[in-house]
Amino acid sequence: MAAESQSRAAEEKTSGRSDVNKKLKYISLAVLVVQNASLILSIRYVRTLPGDRFFTTSAVVMAEVLKVLTCLLIILLQRRFHLKDTVYFLVDSILFQYKDTLKLAVPSLIYTLQNNLQYVAISNLPAATFQVTYQLKILTTALFSVTMLRKSLSRVQWLSLLLLFAGVAVVQMEQEGKKEASSAASSTQNYTVGLVAVVISCLSSGFAGVYFEKILKGSAASVWVRNVQLGIFGTALGAVALWWQDGGAVVERGVLFGYTGAVWCVVLNQAFGGLLVAVVVKYADNILKGFATSLSIVVSTVTSVYLFGFQVDLLFTAGAGLVIGAVYMYSLPKGPSSSSPSSSSASSVTPPTTELEAFLPKAQRLVAPPPPS
Questions:
Q1: Rounded Cα distance, 363 and 268, in Å
Q2: Which residue has the higher pLDDT, 9 or 252?
Q3: Are 224 and 356 a contacting pair, CB within 8 Å?
Q4: Which of 145, 146, 142 is nearest to 163 (CA)?
């Protein structure tokens, strides 16, 4: 009898955990979809509002500052608020080990460029078009991973990349017909500029992610320290870009000119959105993350129809459908053959989501050292 009751209790406990995990998966899916769609839609919204426009370069700097401050707070919390010990630790990690810190200058420069280009692209492209086209970052990350890290892709992944490229091409063909009408309707938006910006952003996203993954291999540094190092360079380089592009206007009007509640929401979303994703993503596998990305494209498109008057036709639907299918196919696990040495070294070209993602630029999440078993 005792054995039966213990067995029944174990089964009930397992069933309870299964129900909790299932609920957490659905919550994770919702959070990932909202995060993927909300930043793009909110940037598009604040950039199309009438009135004084904020300096996008200042928004990039403010987001970097908030990331650094939050990382420092987390490091302080990890060290039980021992301020002196925390300062010594940071000085040793950042200044004394300066060669290690300097390695992050290159990815930080690329991220700063990428974040600024993201504003340029979304300011000139419909949110739905940007969301679809920006999935090219999967293609660039895969190609850089194959060439720089010698990773391998399954046949399904190669097929998904071809479908991804075809889908984006179809969407661009559809938008080409609307370019003249849209440019006539809004002299402040330039479709070609937006398209060039998103393509360069995808290229930089892929290269920076793979380069950073290469740097992190064999590194024992704390992921939060890495983010502080990235943030320091990002803030400095962002300030240079701010002065170079908008220096005169900033001196005249101030860094926070044009900031409204909606703009601050964009900055906070860019700075802290990744943290929320990092908290819930441990409950989401690659398939769920791929499904969330696909679903966020649908959410962005539907919202754009009601919020921005975006018109969806057959070509856009076909192109977006190809992209959604490609993203989902790419996230599928490899077959049994992946247990071979060549396959096991590249379980996924798309970098896995870890706690490092909390404060890295949204446009590209990077690989962190695997958690201890």
A1: 15
A2: 252
A3: no
A4: 142
